[in-house]
Write a structure and sequence with these properties.
The structure is a single chain. The protein has 687 residues and is an alpha/beta fold. 22% of the residues lie in helices and 36% in strands. It has 15 helices and 37 strands. An 8-stranded mixed sheet has the order 16-15-17-18-24-23-22-20. A 5-stranded parallel sheet has the order 4-3-5-6-33, sandwiched between helices. It has a 5-stranded mixed sheet with strand order 8-14-13-10-11, with no helix packed on it. The radius of gyration is 44 Å and the shape is elongated. 36% of the residues are buried.
Length: 687
Amino acid sequence: MNWDITFAPIVPWPVLVALAVVGLAFIAITVMTRGRGWILRGLALALLLAALVNPSLRNEDRENLSDIAIAVVDHSRSQGFGDRTQRTERALNDLKQAVARLGNTELRVVTVTSNVSAENDGTRLFGALNEALSEVPPERFAGAVFITDGEVHDVPAEPGKLGLNAPIHGLITGSRKEIDRRIILEQSPRFGIVGKEQTVRFRVEQTGSQASPIGVTIRLNNGEEQTIDVTPGQSVSLPVLVDHGGQNITEIIADALPGEITEQNNRAISIIEGIRDRLRVLLVSGEPHPGERTWRNLLKADASVDLVHFTILRPPEKQDGTPIKELSLIAFPTRELFVEKLDEFDLIIFDRYQRRGILPMMYLANIADYVKRGGAVLVAAGPDFAAEDGLYNTPLNAVLQVAPSGQILEGGFKPQVTDRGQRHPVTRGLPGAEGTTPNWGRWFRLVDAEAQAGEVVMSGLDNKPLLVLSREEQGRLALLLSDHGWLWARGYEGGGPQTELLRRLAHWLMKEPDLEEEYLSGKQDNDNIVIERRTMADTANPVMVTLPSGGTKEVELRQVTPGVWRAGLPVTEPGIHRLADGKLTAAVAIGSADPKETADPVATDAKLAPVARATGGGLYWLEDYSGLPRISKADAGRQMAGSGWLALKANKAHRVRAVHELPLFSTLGSLALLLMGFAAMWYREGR
């Protein structure tokens, strides 16, 4: 029961005050003149004022509300080091029991996690606390207890402006004796030109140990390793050759420090995305035709392509007495292009070329050797390829691997993607190829030929080969057995994906990883490694994943589209994961997507100290106690922390369930008392 008196004045308070002043003035005059009855007058005035104030006796039926404390439990990755996990669980259980013994106090537990996903950047305890406070009435908040190693990454810059009216305490799960060694990347380029060197700069830092030179292993994704000696605290510049397109991974591993808290941050990963500089393309057109400008426009439209284009109109034997200054055509610079600068080109395209005495057989043999050494050639063939003076009847046939019959097939047809082409990255999913009949325009001419090697990925009339792709030792060759591709570019019968097809062809010839038909790769997708295997085979072998720690896991793949097999593997540790399926190998770098967790994992109370001071809380190392510091409750304004003890705030909050009110001067009894007072005053005055 809670009793108190309330007032509900019948007249405004200023009127009551004025009436009281006037009444007291009359009583004072009576007293000063030695008049009689001033006591009864005062009593009558008091009764009158009391009636006008209208007092009531109020009784509230209250329900006491429990105080709410919040335990913010750090389950981030750094809490897995040493015996922090066990200390955390033990401290949480002890805290629950201690709060239960306090009585009228509720403990709400909030868990904060982190992982190797970039979604969680560091340990964010205050974000979790703010979210929990959104469901707690301010008048019931008794305080917060952080169970953590102290590595908190969202501590407010100005703790005094937190606006909390209760203490924040910290229970530190680590040890003051912890030591650690770690690698810090100071410079790691994101991109690099293929064939050029980039510089990766790093240093080794360590806590709690002598700074003597240590061994650091440099491991490349091709398996090569080297070991160097590094002095902690000193920057080291490491030249890295970007030897291929796509990810070039360099792993830097420092020798373990005996007794250190974790070895996970002893390694760092640098990923440089290899990109090609401008592609140098040589386009040799044998004669003018409608498709020639299409080739030129396509290649010139790509800003990353340096195009050298020659159309052979003036053979060497065409020598006459015309003065040089009057010549509008120049002789083909064969020696310069096919001897001196041949290896400078990334791709050579022959567009309807036939022998006209321009290129000696020795030069064509050079081109065949260029392909075998790793070069790329694309032949866009027309009727010239079927003729006796075509490219097939030259030393270039050593790499062509497609024998023409000598016939030219005429008639309308829609190019078809073959079954093998459905699996090949160049033609797989080509726009317009959906369904049994492609949704693109017709072509009208095809060179009849037989593919002796390579992959026939597109076919034409009577299922004859149309596009053949082949690998020749270290190089590649593509043969398009029709010169009517320009019809797609002109939009004939709706056109077709000529630009996309030729783009894929060029990139496949350039050995771009995204267009390799036999390829094993992995990439990080949040908390998983997505493993992809592209193959022309009907099945894909399981992939054996070697973890950074040395453990292995076997992953079964499933086909998601013809030629593409995938599977996911949950990420459990950062570092280079090596993939192998018995035929191919690959590496995927799983960097610590939460680098703050391992950047400096040594436990500390320094980060939470400003917050504890600002809120009146305390910080306690659990290694100093067999259990927890003594926990109690204290009223607002009292000290909330001390040596070996901490307190939660006692708010004494309540909820009113019912109110009972008894007016004191609104009853007949109170009216009678008022009348008796006035009657007594009149009686005394009348004597």
